[in-house]
Amino acid sequence: MSRQSVQAPKSVVMIRPHHFTPNPMTAADNAFQSNDDKRSAAAIASKAFDEVTRLAEGLARAGVTVHVFEDKTVSTPDSVFPNNWFSTHSGGHIAIYPMYSANRQMERRGDVIEMLKAEYRVQDVIDYSGLEKDNVYLEGTGAMVLDHVGRVAYAVRSNRTNEVALERFCTHFNFEPMIFDAVDRSGKPIYHTNVLMCIGTDFALLGTQMIPDVSRRQGIVTRLEETGREVIAISIEQIENFAGNAIELEGGEGRVVVLSARAHSSLDQAQIAVIERSAKLLPFDVSTIELAGGSVRCMLAGIHLSRRTAPTKHLLFAAA
Q: Mind telling me which InterPro entries this protein's record contains (predicted)?
């Protein structure tokens, strides 16, 4: 369990929103999104702030380095999900992505990129955001689930995942594109790949029931197994409880798989046993954040870059 892995980053970026609310501009194609009419907007925002804080503190206690940035604006309701607008890659590379919804395009922020340049070794930044002008979108590691070992980019076709942009990313970053269709129980396309798929070092969670093409489904399973991973099939009900929206990180005492308390409760003992052969499960209550249709994995932008110097502490708040 202590063996380090290129799949599991040691550091993450988080955005702590001060005015969180489910995004009305993304509700049309995000079936995981919901509303809470029993609480006021202020109560929801306050609870979301606390959930982000507790997640950041919990990761830091586990030995993960957490860079927290504040979002005090009201114009970016989904800013808590930074993994959609940028990703980082070994060798010193950063990608910036084109976003489907207009108010999500405002989430990109230079201070995050400048922090990465200052704290980590960055060679180049490739900015795909100009593709928005042509209505071409690729929402980062929401649209793609990346196998950093096998160099495969798994991606579900949707409004948020354009095949041209995917091919361009894969050419630049040396990934093999593997695009497929996946639908929910009503036949609606899954909006982001990372709600039905999580790739760890020794295992992969996959919503096999949501991939209607049987041959494509088996091809994905085979490709994952070729890298030595055990594929854990998760049900539609488990995916609806965000069991697929997990991420493996490198903690101070080995790898951890971070997921929501709701997701953790949906897993059965056999599935938990397979995961815990490789990593410790680390659940957090983010039920308010989940109103926006994403969960823990969406909240964490992994940093696959080399540090310039070792961190003196694990919880790092950006200067105001």
A: Amdntrnsf_FN0238
